[in-house]
Amino acid sequence: MSLIPSFFGNRRSNVFDPFSLDIWDPFEGFPFSSTVAIVPSSSRETSAFANARIDWKETPEAHIFKADLPGLKKEEVKVEVEEGGVLQISGERSKEQEEKNDKWHRVERSSGKFLRRFRLPENAKTNQVTASMENGVLTVTVPKEEVKKPEVKSIEISG
What we know:
Blueprint: H1 3-7, H2 41-50, E1 54-58, E2 62-68, E3 77-82, E4 86-93, E5 112-119, E6 130-134, E7 137-143
Antiparallel strand pairs: 1-2, 2-7, 3-4, 4-5, 6-7
């Protein structure tokens, strides 16, 4: 097994995938010191949650997107289809309220906004998209149009 996939976050996406609008961040997953002036604090707060992991599979009937969004309610997630066949999934996880007397030992859960966009293929029925959320997993189903089989006409050979 290669070390490269685990080093870059075990990404399964292909850089040459024409349907993906995902932008690779070479610094994703690297810890930044809180004293770094180059990275604004808002970026550090949202960096872990900014790239929600989404699986996209194609079946004979539909394109199915699954996103793990633990702790989010369906009201905090937005699914949209833009003109040109672009599926956009976005949302926000609020930061937990801090009390004056609380002493934090570790903060690993991320908060902030996320936004993912996918260019859908031409055979996607963008007017029939459905979405459901169960146990922190968002499932978006985009039905596909039936592929018309070309008519084959037999030509009689004379002679």
